[in-house]
């Protein structure tokens, strides 16, 4: 395919996508196929000789679409919504075209720098404390992770590394293995399974703190477990609070939990994977009060802020805590301006896509007012939004209510 054909095919593909989304309600939302359906529809091996573009495109409707669950259908009521918008799709196309692997500032300066600035923009929309912003001189800042699960894992691993160093400063004779064997991390008994998984991957004990009648972890419950565990010779080092738990949309009481974590030198990470987008509206921002006590915070713009998957925004108060935990710089990656803020030291893979382009397009083309209007439009279908339970209810049913109340779902969908 040369550039001339790409122009032609690209326009056809944009038409296909626009038709798909404009008519998505005509498709059966859940596919009518059995496991293994696809193998019988395509050859056992990759073709030896090149096929034509027409052949490939023909198979989208024959092979792919029959097995697609249409997440953006107005009849999709499962799981939770996943975000998308036309500006984000166009930005993703540009990301593919630039095709950089942004593992250092020099590998693509715009990739590193736009991400830093976009996380500052978004942090300001959420009214995060200054400590979380990179600015030009700040010691905090944000990074785009693939998912909330990755963010929790990174936070836990950084906290593990920090506590080991702290203990070894006073007790240089204590081995890392000995310290890690005593570490204990905590989360709500309502927390997402990814938190427990972070503990498994991080090789540390993970305990669930019982919640109150509103499924919220309270300070007293954490304090009690901490006292028991310290008495048993364990070392508490990490607490993952959730704002908007998966099963019940409960909010842990971070105004009580934060001061305890700070006093006990426990890293507090906040997982607000799906509820977090709402905090850009001043009327929902109080749900984030207590963020000032956290060491790290994460939510997924790809769930509710019009940015396509994958885009999970994570902030830390001290970049050095994360960089200190993961930084290894072999000779072949060394370059001038090495300290210019590249985020590959904040994540597990080395390579990174230019994901901040999606944020840049969406933030500019909607503006904060447009994004707030979008959140409000969704929440408007539920007058009791301020109840966390209703937030959950609203979130899981907005599409159906939309089509019922508005009659025509297009009135609500972001790209109309
Ligand atoms: C509260 C919470 N945390 C974490 C996750 C996992 O999100 P991800 O797929 O981004 O890892 C979810 C998913 O729904 C969630 O609701």
UniProtKB/TrEMBL annotation:
Its EC number is 4.1.1.28. GO terms for molecular function: aromatic-L-amino-acid decarboxylase activity; pyridoxal phosphate binding. One of its GO terms (biological process) is serotonin biosynthetic process. GO terms for cellular component: cytoplasm. InterPro entries: Aromatic_deC (IPR010977), PyrdxlP-dep_de-COase (IPR002129), PyrdxlP-dep_Trfase (IPR015424), PyrdxlP-dep_Trfase_major (IPR015421), Pyridoxal-P_BS (IPR021115). It comes from the Eukaryota. Its cofactor is pyridoxal 5'-phosphate. Pathway: Catecholamine biosynthesis; dopamine biosynthesis; dopamine from L-tyrosine: step 2/2. Pfam families: Pyridoxal_deC. Keywords: Catecholamine biosynthesis, Decarboxylase, Lyase, Pyridoxal phosphate. It is an enzyme of class 4 (lyase). The modification N6-(pyridoxal phosphate)lysine is found at residue 303. Belongs to the group II decarboxylase family. Homodimer. This is Aromatic-L-amino-acid decarboxylase. The gene is LOC109066248.
């Amino acid at each position: 395919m040369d550039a001339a054909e790409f122009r032609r095919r690209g326009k056809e593909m944009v038409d296909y996508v626009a038709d798909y989304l404009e008519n998505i309600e005509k498709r059966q939302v859940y596919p009518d196929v059995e496991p293994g359906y696809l193998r019988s529809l395509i050859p056992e091996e990759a073709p030896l000789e090149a096929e034509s573009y027409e052949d490939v495109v023909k198979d989208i409707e024959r092979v792919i679409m029959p097995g697609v669950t249409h997440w953006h259908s107005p009849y999709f009521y499962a799981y939770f919504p996943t975000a998308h918008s036309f500006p984000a799709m166009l930005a993703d196309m540009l990301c593919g075209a630039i095709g950089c692997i942004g593992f250092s500032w020099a590998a693509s300066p715009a990739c590193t720098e736009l991400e830093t600035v976009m996380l500052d923009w978004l942090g300001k929309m959420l009214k995060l404390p200054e400590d979380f912003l990179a600015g030009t001189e700040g010691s905090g800042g944000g990074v785009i992770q693939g998912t909330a699960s990755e963010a929790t894992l990174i936070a836990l691993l950084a906290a593990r590394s920090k506590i080991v160093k702290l203990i070894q400063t006073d007790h240089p004779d204590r081995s890392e293995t000995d310290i890690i064997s005593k570490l204990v991390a905590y989360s709500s008994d309502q927390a997402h399974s990814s938190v427990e998984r972070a503990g498994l991957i991080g090789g540390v004990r993970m305990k669930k703190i019982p919640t109150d009648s509103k499924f919220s972890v309270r300070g007293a419950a954490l304090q009690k477990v901490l006292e028991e565990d310290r008495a048993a010779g364990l070392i508490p080092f990490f607490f993952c609070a959730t704002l908007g738990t998966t099963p019940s949309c409960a909010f842990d009481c971070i105004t009580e939990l934060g001061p305890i974590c700070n006093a006990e030198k426990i890293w507090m990470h906040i997982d607000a994977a799906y509820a977090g987008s709402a905090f850009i509206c001043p009327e929902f921002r109080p749900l984030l009060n207590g963020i000032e006590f956290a060491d790290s915070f994460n939510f997924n713009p790809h769930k509710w802020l019009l940015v396509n998957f994958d885009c999970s925004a994570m902030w830390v108060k001290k970049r050095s805590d994360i960089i200190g935990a993961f930084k290894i710089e072999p000779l072949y990656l060394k370059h001038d301006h090495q300290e210019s803020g590249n985020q590959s030291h904040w994540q597990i893979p080395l390579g990174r896509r230019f994901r901040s382009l999606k944020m840049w397009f969406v933030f500019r083309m909607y503006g904060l007012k447009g994004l707030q209007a979008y959140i409000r439009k969704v929440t408007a279908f539920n007058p009791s939004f301020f109840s966390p339970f209703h937030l959950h209810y609203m979130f899981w049913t907005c599409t159906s209510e939309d089509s019922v109340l508005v009659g025509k779902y297009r009135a609500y969908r972001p790209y109309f």
